[in-house]
User: Fold this.
Amino acid sequence: MTFLKKKKSLKEVLEKAGKERTALGQFNFSTLEQLHGIALASEKARFPVICGTSQGEADFFGVEEASLLVKNLRQKKGVPLFLNFDHGKDFDQLKKAIDVGYDMVHFDGSQLPFEKNIENTRQVVNYAKKKGVLVEGEVGSIGGKSVVSREEVREFTLTSIDKIAKFIRETGVDCIALDIGSVHGIHKKMPRIYPERVSQLLENIFCFVVLHGGSGLEDKDVKEVIAKGVVKVNINTEIRYAWKEALAKEMQNDPQEIVPYKLLSSSRAAVCEKVAEKINLFRSTGSR
Ligand code: 13P
Assistant:
């Protein structure tokens, strides 16, 4: 994907990614130096990225602040940065994110009974559509947490493709968090990935397909799912880990240091490096 000269909407950028068989990374943040590291990587690579805030990250950082800063960085640097609310479970919280200018919201009703999930997701879609905001939906839970875990991934059942297609049809979501075997976080033994589920879904119905639990997966699996049509890959744990390792090293090197910008500049660089590595991977399968 070439760097965008004209201002494009997130929908247009995702369409372009789909045509070129590349994917955009969604990189989560909850601190300013993480956001700066993400923006810097996007600027250097001349490739668009989606910044993400989960419920906890948004509560800590503030949705207004996240939206204003992403917009500011986008304008100042001319970098196509977008913002998504990741795994929102509450309509009012997502409404707020939409109102303050998020480009996309992910309503995660996967824990609800199927029909209730459809009803609540549709409520978010109806509100978001009026404001030109994209909605990601989820059916069939993608487990795990964005942490480094010593556990092996427990066996779980994948949702039937027909059920997912019905969910997409009845809710009108733009994007779907598709369960293809991945789970959030880095685990002792990473799960098996089922890339063929991406093509099976896309043969049934069109939707932007999102890979959750992108941390710790093998590059070959990530490339394969992108080749099959995934256009967005979510990364959180690897960002958190890079940030923390760099900070821990700084504190160990000089236990007396108390200046935040000295302690945290390595973390910013580490996040930037990690995002750059992922951007290279996500666009390596593409036609450009
Ligand atoms: P990881 O924590 O595995 O990177 O997953 C992130 C994610 O999917 C956020 O929605």
About this structure: The radius of gyration is 18 Å. Residues 10-282 form a domain with the TIM Barrel fold (CATH 3.20.20.70).
